Amino acid sequence: MQERFVDIAIIGAGTSGLNAMSQARKAGKSFVLINGGEPGTTCARVGCMPSKAMIQVAEDYHRRTHLGRYGIDGHEGLQLNLAEALEHVQDIRDTFVDRVLGSSTDDLPEDLFLQDYARFLEPTLLAVGEQRIRAGAVVIATGSRPRVPEPWRAFGDKLLTTDSLFELADLPASIAVIGLGTIGLELGQSLHRLGIQVEGFDQLATLAGIRDPEVNQAAIQVIGKEFPLHLGQPVQISEDGEQLRIRAGAHQISVDALLCSIGRVPNLEGLGLEQLGLELDARGLPPFDRHSMQVGELPVFIAGDVTAERPVLHEAGDEGRIAGYNAVQTTSGKRPARFRRRTPLFINFCDPNICIIGQGFDRLDRDQTAIGEIKMAPVGRALIMGNNRGLIRVYADKTSGRLLGAELMAPRGENLAHLISWSIQQQMTVEQMLRMPFYHPVIEEALQAALNDLNRKLEVKCDGPLTELALLEPSDGTAASR
Questions:
Q1: 245 near 237, Cβ under 8 Å?
Q2: Burial class (CB in 10 A: 0-12, 13-18, 19+), 169
């Protein structure tokens, strides 16, 4: 079998792989893109986009429950055609997949886009179908898939994951959502709002990865008013005639289907990573540098969901760019570069949004950290929207006033989370944030209130007579600057 040489071989045509490919192209390096699964990114096919389309339909339909208080008659008669709603979600999904393919792999020649599975024979030698690819550098970007316990597979079509949910022409009348992380909570609430009988289960006592106990309690109270939550107990599942019986502690229920959302696992099977000559961890992953994405000291780089660390699109894109850039560097005889990673940012699109930004609660030095908070109940804009539910908690270093992180559940939290993450990345202090403009009435005023509460708990003095405004010129007797 003859070997074919390329500068860079990229395994996986998802978000990370495509971004790595763009770096190879920009540098004029020869490359091959290898993809053994369905083309199109996880985000477009089964992740971000179809789930957000379903969330939007569910939110709009749920909004009818608010119309009576506004004096809008006829809202009781609004009905949802579930089949048409699902067809709309699929149409939106297909549009995004087509856009991805049309701007990436559709026009790649067959010799550059190999639709087959790759296997390492050596660190820089791959078997791809009947071909062997020798590369100057390799990028591993094989993504992930839903975690499904092997015994559960016996439930057949009654077992749903994100790989199958968005293919349905109709939905079961009742669904148990097992796993209430980001995926389970978003889809569980949406399914409930679409008229499906939903109960949620998680062996953890937290929702959506929340670490702050106060925010977690607020989330449980808000979501628990929509559909039942059963937390802190493992589940047992068995056949019950045409249904499935779900047991968690003393509670049990029979449902038509279960949505398994207990996490995702890296796509590593058959990849032959043992041929890299490095010790693999319990997940089957080799050691790698999170700032260069280099695997050991090899001309091999890893990126995206396969790392099982930051499974969100913008991080996958960054890792793909880093891996692709450093693959180019390696094939040019240069050392890989190490990049500063962005401020961690996680957003759950349930209603209200749940967000974790920067340092989560579990990573704080409690002796050195001040915490400010605001409940959403009295926030004017949220009250007008009929969505004054949730809690914002912000964290800062006591002595420097520098913002460290936040966890929150709030309407339009996706926007607040970006403001907070940008401020953390710019290493802003609480005082500097409070000197930014805050309009009235807007949801951002809730963040302003949380920052004011936080500012009162800091050990650092203001650099002028007014916290909210800086002096044009220094004046005698003003406090030391932050």
A1: yes
A2: exposed
Report which of 188, 425, 214, 390 is spatially closest to residue 318, judged by C-alpha positions. 425
Q: What is the DSSP string of 275-307?
A: GG-S---TTSPPPB-TTT-BBTTSSEEE-GGGG
Q: What whole-number distance in Å separates Cα of residue 244 and Cα of residue 315?
A: 37
DSSP 22-72: HHHHHTT--EEEE--S-SS-HHHHHSHHHHHHHHHHHHHHHTHHHHGGGT-
- The 8-class DSSP code of residue 366 comes to G
- Tell me the C-alpha distance between 324 and 316, whole Å: 12
Strands 144-146 and 235-240: unpaired
CA distance 165 to 188: 12
CA angle, residues 211, 216, 217, in degrees to nearest 5: 145
CA-to-CA distance for 395 and 410, rounded, in angstroms?
A: 16
Q: Distance between CA atoms of 132 and 117, rounded to whole angstroms?
A: 12
Q: How far is CA 254 from the centre of its chain?
A: 31
Q: Mean pLDDT over all residues of the chain? A: 95
- How far is residue 239 from each of residues 174, 247, 393, measured CA to CA in Å? 15, 12, 43
| Closest listed residue to residue 203, CA positions, set 165, 230, 239 | 230
Residues 287-332 have pLDDT tens digits of 999 999 999 999 999 999 999 898 899 999 999 999 999 999 999 9
pLDDT (0 to 100) of residue 476: 61
Q: Which residues of the chain have pLDDT under 50?
A: 479-482
The answer to whether residues 285 and 276 touch, using CB atoms and an 8 Å cutoff, is: no
Question: Backbone phi, then psi, for 42, in 5-degree steps?
Answer: -55, -40
Strand boundaries in 141-278, DSSP class E: 144-146, 159-160, 174-178, 197-202, 229-231, 235-240, 243-248, 251-255, 257-260, 264-266
* 8 Å CB contact between 12 and 304: yes
Q: For residue 302, which of 265, 266, 344 has the smallest C-alpha distance?
A: 266
Q: What is the reported pTM?
A: 0.94
424: nearest Cα among 338, 336, 348, 356: 356
**What whole-number distance in Å separates Cα of residue 148 and Cα of residue 473?**
63
**Amino acid 475: pLDDT:** 65
pLDDT for position 477 = 53
